[in-house]
Write a sequence for this structure.
């Protein structure tokens, strides 16, 4: 399931964040890549301990907690602290699959990467190339979203970033361990939740809303891993 989550950050928040990111000191992006990824990764990354990374990471995590679409689609149990990357001057990231387990630096915590997320800080017209290409059973999807918008997709997906030939592509990226490990089960719950919300809006007194809500929570109870 690939989900576009609009306006995770407001345009003002995204603009202010971009200004801070542009003034920060970047390093080789391969510092956080696994063995296979490091062979195809060519970009810049903000060090995890950098004050700007920590400040903006907290901003993103706070925005996600208040975003009902993210909660419905991801059913998050744990969220990896956001990282930040920059592509410019021909930078690209070849085809790869994200690591299954990520260690949270400075802690003993690890998360299973069920979902991957990219939140954009550059407007699409600011740069050429830089499309996030995500493969699934329905083909290859090209993603290039406005600043403040985010895409959520299964971490099992093969994906790559095309070369940036003009301007700079600046984004946050991170992973989510979901209450629901299986993508098909998570998709069914998301579709069911979306249908319940539509019924509740269109026919708030209809008894099916209560019945379907019961089905949703019973499935969540059956499938959830805590």
């Amino acid at each position: 399931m690939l989900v576009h989550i609009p306006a995770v950050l407001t345009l003002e928040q995204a603009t202010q964040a971009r200004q801070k990111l542009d003034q920060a000191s970047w390093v080789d992006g391969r510092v956080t890549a696994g063995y296979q990824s490091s062979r195809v990764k060519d970009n810049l990354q903000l060090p995890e301990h950098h004050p700007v990374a920590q400040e903006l990471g907290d901003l993103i995590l706070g925005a996600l907690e208040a975003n009902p679409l993210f909660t419905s689609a991801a059913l998050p149990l744990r969220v990896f602290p956001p990282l930040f990357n920059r592509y410019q001057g021909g930078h690209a990231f070849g085809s790869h699959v994200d690591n299954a387990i990520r260690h949270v630096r400075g802690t003993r915590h690890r998360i299973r990467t069920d979902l991957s997320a990219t939140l954009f800080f550059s407007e699409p017209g600011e740069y050429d190339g830089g499309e996030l290409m995500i493969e699934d059973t329905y083909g290859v999807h090209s993603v290039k979203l406005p600043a403040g918008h985010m895409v959520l997709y299964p971490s099992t997906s093969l994906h790559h970033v095309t070369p940036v030939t003009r301007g700079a592509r600046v984004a946050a990226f991170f992973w989510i361990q979901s209450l629901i490990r299986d993508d098909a089960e998570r998709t069914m719950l998301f579709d069911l939740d979306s249908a319940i919300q539509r019924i509740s809006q269109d026919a708030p007194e209809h008894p099916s809303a209560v019945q379907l809500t019961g089905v949703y929570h019973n499935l969540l109870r059956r499938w959830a891993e805590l």
Remarks:
- The radius of gyration is 18 Å.
- The helical segments are 11-22, 35-38, 51-65, 68-74, 183-202, 207-223.
- The chain has a mean pLDDT of 95.
- The chain has six helices and 17 strands.
